[in-house]
Automatic annotation (TrEMBL):
Coiled coil: none annotated. GO terms for molecular function: pullulanase activity. PANTHER family: GLYCOGEN DEBRANCHING ENZYME (PTHR43002). GO terms for biological process: carbohydrate metabolic process. SUPFAM superfamilies: (Trans)glycosidases, E set domains, Glycosyl hydrolase domain. This is Alpha-1,6-glucosidase, pullulanase-type. Residues 921-1085 form the Alpha-1,6-glucosidases pullulanase-type C-terminal domain. Residues 373-388 have a biased composition (Low complexity). CDD domains: AmyAc_Pullulanase_LD-like, E_set_Pullulanase. InterPro entries: GH (IPR017853), Glyco_hydro_b (IPR013780), Ig-like_fold (IPR013783), Ig_E-set (IPR014756), Pullul_strch (IPR011839), Pullul_strch_C (IPR024561), Pullulanase_N2 (IPR040671). Residues 1-121, 346-388 are annotated as: Disordered. It comes from the Bacteria. It holds the Pfam family Pullulanase_N2.
Amino acid sequence: MGDIPLRPGTSCACGDRIPVPKRANRTRPQRNVTGRAKRPRTRRMPPAGVGRTRRWDTGGPSTAGRAGEFPHRADMAPPPGGDYEVRGPTADPRTRGRPRHDRQDRRRPTTAPPLGRTHPMTFTYTLTCTLDTTTALPPVAGSEEQRAYWVTPTILAWPLSLLPRGMDREVVVTNAGHPLPGSGLALRLITAPDGGAAAIHGRILGADGMPAPTVTPLRIVGNLPDEVLAAHPHLEGYIALSATDAAGTPLLDDDAVATALTGQVAIAQYVGAPDPTEDADVSGARLDAFTGVQTAILLDHLYAEAATRAELGVTFSDGLPSFALWAPTAQAVTLLTWETGDRLGSVPEVPGPPRRTPAVRKGDGRWVVTNRPDSPADAASSAPGGEPAAPITAGCQYLWEVRVYVPSTRRVETNVVTDPYSTALTTDSTRSVAVDLADPHLAPEQWATTRAPAVRNDSARSIYELHLRDFSAADGTVPPELRGTYRAFTVAGSAGVRHLAELARAGMNTIHLLPTFDIATIPEHRGSQRHPNIPDGAHPASADQQAAIAEVADHDAYNWGYDPLHWGAPEGSYATEGHQDGGARVVEFREMVGALHDLGLQVVLDQVYNHTAACGQDPRSVLDRVVPGYYHRLDAVGRVTSSTCCANTATENALCARLMVDSVVRWARWYRVDGFRFDLMGHHPRAVMERVRAALDELTLEADGVDGRSIYLYGEGWNFGEVAGNALFVQATQGQLDGTGIGAFNDRLRDAVHGGGAFDPDHRVFQGFGTGLLTQPSGLDHRGWNEQSADLAHRTDLVRLGLAGNLKDYVMTISDGSVRRGIDLIHNGAPAAFASHPQENVNYVDAHDNETLYDLLAYKLPQGMPVAERVRMNTVCLATVALAQSPAFWSAGTELLRSKSLDRDSYNSGDWFNAIDFTGQSNGFGRGLPPASRNEGSWAIQGPLLQDDWLRPSPEEIAAARSQALDLLRLRASTPLFSLGSARLIQDKLSFPGAGFGAPAGVIVMLIDDTRGGSDVDPELDAVLVVFNASGQTLTQPLPELAGRDFRLSPIQSEGADEVVRRTGFDRASGTISVPARTVAVLVQPQSR
């Protein structure tokens, strides 16, 4: 609100009659909350109603039994010009402190509001007889926003949304993109080094005590250049403004531009200016818009080329650390350090004041502390006592103090932040720690000497997705102090480690760990972590368990971890107590990697570069308190976008992309991990993902200890949010990663197997290929037989396509008998196939998101189906992933019928709902109703299911599921024919006999024929024949094209634990195959000798 130009705090002796100031408006007078507005002596105006509010303030006399003053406030439209009396309350002992009303006239004139506009008026007066009057001036268009863009030192972009009302673009710019004279528009660049510039009463004014804003004329020059629009398509339609004179000479030199960027930057638009381009004076014109300017594009233009090549974070030379922070808009930066006396920094937070070292600004926007005795800048450093300080040593704790203008607060702030490039941290991430990752004392022996196992090609990957706490938090075979930590993976003989070893022997070759970088949502101090009090004896569908979880959910030790705080340092809550500071947690992380490598498992890290836990001045915000408005993606009005869930990052900006690339390389080089999964990868540019790939490819065993070319990348290629449809850049989404070798999750196969969609309100209704559609109906799908049949046929085609690598150009016979390419099939309105190479597709049927596979089967399979049959359907579903040509992805515990008690989103549901029992005694079904915050709307459906004893597997049934799943892994690993590795070989060798019109419902037959094509992939086999019988009936199907071939059940199954599959038969004479119900059979044809 803007103040009326009246001396504030007008007071009287007894507070009875206080005049309303004169106003020039013609709004009718309003009745006041405690008195009535008086008409002016010169004219009669009828009264009108008014809203009223009251509030209590402490510190005054007691009124009606409550302490405090009794201020009155009334919001009303301003009366016309004239003097008015307001009856105000006073305290009176005769009324026991309640207000009494007397009258006494006092009048004071004032001026009308600017531009003849009508603005609401607020009265506030108290028992001390003080009257304050303010007007709520409506903000000028664009105020409190950042709608304009600064693109190059001389080009700015102005949005059409801020053109004056009734004025179209055609009035300002021709269709050919040239400016039109006579629009009467004048635009001015406003810069204020300390902020405070604002539109007040039709003028741009600076804040009291601050320098007056600098005004630079801007010329309307038409359309933005083509190269600008190509790089920034969201600026299409914006009007180009030029900070040059008529001759094209810049009005701001490079130093002036750089200085301007360290303060407030805004643009004012005036209407009715006599000379809109040549003169900063806009006397007589009306201020029509005033908005902030987004500067990220200009910052990249000025600094990115040099800054992306320069050192950032902490680097070491001769054992001493140097420090660099990219903060091009900062006015001053100081390094704060605390010596630890431990070069690994593995000590708790050091008390006392820090040593302060002013950083030196470089031309690339970095602020640097070289930490060399001969450096003039470092000579200015002093210890807390003021004496000259020795060099800063390795293992020190440090923070950056950044003095920077913050658009959201409209002033210069002094922010004290950790290093965005932190390699190590103190507990709870309160300080960064200068740790040299090359220090041999940080290299545990097993990690240093054990190489990662080799994977034949990326298509041969079998990936096991695992949350670190899920692995050991409930494992009684792990010492209590190691449960839920990195070191739990080093406990040889624990139930979890034995299970991982068995998976690895069967063919699992890659562990995918949910986020293990430093996150913001788990207290790291053990004493700060709360524990739920789960009631004893609560029944399987009780709400008591989830209520206990909810009480501590935001303060316990559990979270999935998709809340990044520091991308390049390990999470401290997963380190053991006493080893959470500095390099100690680095050692424990490496011990985990070494132990997994020793088990025969590669390690993939889940990375979350699409958002951070916070932005702005939030204490958990790091990036935005260093370079406000740069690292986070802003929308067209300057708000931080949050389509990912939280504060979206802007990896299209060069230094944000560099931070992403650098941290990936750090994990690969210094922790020797073998792959990365990118959360919401579609929110990143494809070009940035390609930069990640290229940076990793430069790592070599000789120089870096890792072969970067063997590192596998994959992620979520979803297309949504403000970036959808390549609105800001070409995204890294499904179908747009052709040729990169980067994988994207295949929701097509997932939905085809499940039926329905991932976000159906009632999962029971729609079934799929692996959940009994048409062949084992649940009775809840009320569509007709023809519609269900067509649905199953289409979903069966999608499964076939997924088995063939989901390749765009793969040609196959589909269910209607026609021959189509994969890209011609449609899924939810988009092409079903999106891969050019099989490793660009990642098949899965469950993951940490959404329900587990077993829980979906509990919903979708017919009620009353015995668990033994559900086990078989679990195996059928997993087989569509395990026996396909692309990387196979299993969620941890899916082979154990893992349940989360039907929880659809267990990210904050604690160990109770998430922990895995690797002993196989329980699968987790019936631990109570899942948390209300994300499931309560489904409780009416979930409750009866959770109480159904038929859905709770016995240890023997869990063991059967485990054995069948292990056989699938053995089958996948038994022949390279399940991972051909190239689109050409898949097209040559893989086909689906019996497909087409009239094919049996719920059945897929897949042939991988090594006699076709020009190469012999498997010297032991001529062919593999796989039959997926998801129906409830034994399949007997003639396949004449296979007559005369010698197919027999794979020894893995004929000698395996599943007795049912042994009933599979093949008649060589007729080519007829026979497979039991709910069974996947793999038959092999040995190579002719």
